[in-house]
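User: I'm putting together a teaching handout on how multi-component assemblies are represented. Below are the sequence lines for each component of a complex, exactly as they appear in our records. Could you produce the 3D structure of the whole assembly as structure tokens, so the students can see both representations side by side? Please keep the chain order the same as the input.
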Amino acid sequence: MSSDDAQQGQAPQSGADQAGAAGEERTVRVVLVDDHRMFRTGVQAEIGVTERTRVEVVGEAADVDQAVTVITATRPEVVLLDVHLPGGGGVEVLRRSATMMADPERPVRFLALSVSDAAEDVIGVIRGGARGYVTKTITGTDLVNAIFRVADGDAVFSPRLAGFVLDAFASTDAPPVDEALDCLTQREREVLRLIARGYAYKEVGKQLFISVKTVESHVSAVLRKLQLSNRSELTRWAAARRLV
Amino acid sequence: MTTAPPRAGTHYAPAPDPEEPPVRKLYRSADGRLLGGVARGLAGHLGLPVSWVRIVFVALFMADGLGAVLYAAFWFFVPLGVGGVEARRPAAGEGRRRRAVRRPDKGQVFALIALLAGASIVASRFQLGQANGYLWPVLLIGAGVALVWRQADNARRAQWLEIGRRKGVLPVLRGAAGVALVGLGVTGIVVLQGSVRHLGSVLQAALAVVVGIALLAGPYLVRIMQDLSEERLMRIRAQERAEVAAHVHDSVLHTLTLIQRSADDPREVARLARAQERELRAWLYKPEGRGKEEDEEPQTVAEAVRKAAAEVEDHHGVPIEVVVVGDCPLDEGLAAQMQAAREAMVNAAKYGGEGGAVQVFAEVEGRTVFVSVRDRGPGFDLDAVPSDRMGVRESIIGRMERNGGTARLRSAPEGGTVVELEMERRESKDGKESGERNEGGGG
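Assistant: Of course. Below is the structure of the complete assembly, with chains in the same order as your input.
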């Protein structure tokens, strides 16, 4: 924990560490989108108030149309989005919320939350603009952490997702250097590899002797690359595995 | 026959009950038949040798063609069955009858020729006056109809036996020949009644009638075709749904029952739920044709890691999360590495399972295969383990080193244990691959 304390000492003003470094209570407004009412209720119960943070559920939706309406009306900071939804799925919600995601003032950020960890689902919503992907087996604490991280503009990778990304870029190891921009840097790869092995961000930082913020920025960079570039490579990769 | 109600939508008669004799229904035989399978079917039904029945038919045929009329009637009215008596009859004791299934249709061709020859002989016997001028057209019509019916039978049989499904020219030709024969016969009759001079106009009139009928019936026919294809689609959907339902019933409901029964044993419940989840996921998300046979020996690193993890998870009731990056076929060294990894998973599940899920990460990168097994349990000091305990030392470290790999054990930053196994892939496969890679880089 010592390095984490040091980390807090370094950047207290950012207040970006998920627990709220300044010690004051932070609130994140969240909308839950899932077609199972039981699950929404369960999540609500799990992500209540913790010591220094508060997740406030300001809206719920059960299908795509409802989701877009609720998100537009409430403008939450984070949307917990199910991947399989009636009316077109999570990807459709992402598509129709594109302007709200891009809003520089109050961006709405999406965290995908799904039972499926099939590659096509994961890559699909990440491409759609979700800032993270966690499976429904996640614990309440981890989910709250993920929500705060996403609210601060960082990306959240599950080990599984990190594995998918590594796998996707593994096949592009040899090819041309002129696409260097599309490839992951050595550091990003190391970070992903540790995440894929199940290390938490804090532990990754410790292993590589970098701060948690650096880890997060590496992860965000990976996400950015995943979304915007190397599309053809990824498509080929997915097609080769009969995913799309 | 009170047991086993007939399944709707199948061609088959109810399966015969071995205890009580079923009601015997007459079917024509689809296998080893010469013409329409009538004689064979009758023989099977009556329990007589086929040749006897055939002789009776031939004899009756001599009696003013009564045999032919009878045969035609049977052909027309009696449905086709696989075994001659009933469809799906047990094969025991049916060897002789079934033997001819795949034989080419030489016998049938012969029978047809013989039939035509016989018919012409009979016809020449009756060649007496003008009235019998109708005989040839009638014979032609008969032959055409027989051909078309024969073709229909063939199509039906092919449908059952799933043979000859490919669309060939021959069936179409046969059908066309039948239609042509019938047309010729009908025209012949018309010509006889009128005169040859009017042939052109008669043909025109016939054509007009045919076109008219086609115009009238066309829409209905199209409609019927559409309905049929739609119904087929629905049936396929229903089948898929039934398959899902069957699977859910077989595995999920079964597991839920087990969970209810052992509700006060959280470990067992978790184990059951995890196993079921994994199976359902594999069923839902795995591409076709992969990993369907669970019992098969894994051929690649990814399969081996997943299989080992699944087995350890089932056995110890500790969730194991597996992430695999890349894949390659197993060789001797890698197999040893997989065994070491499995041992590490067992240790992690046994001693570190309290801290949460065990995380397994496997990566194939270039020539190196890397596996890490990590738990968040209390951890332990390898040096403090008594020297007579050989588990880790032999099963993991020793095994890896004997096969030319390395194994590292260490404590993770926040407690727990990490076992890291590294192994180089064998040269033989590797040399080829690196050569390919070099070529790719050069070109």
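A couple of points students might notice: The longest helix of chain A spans residues 212-228. The radius of gyration of chain A is 18 Å.
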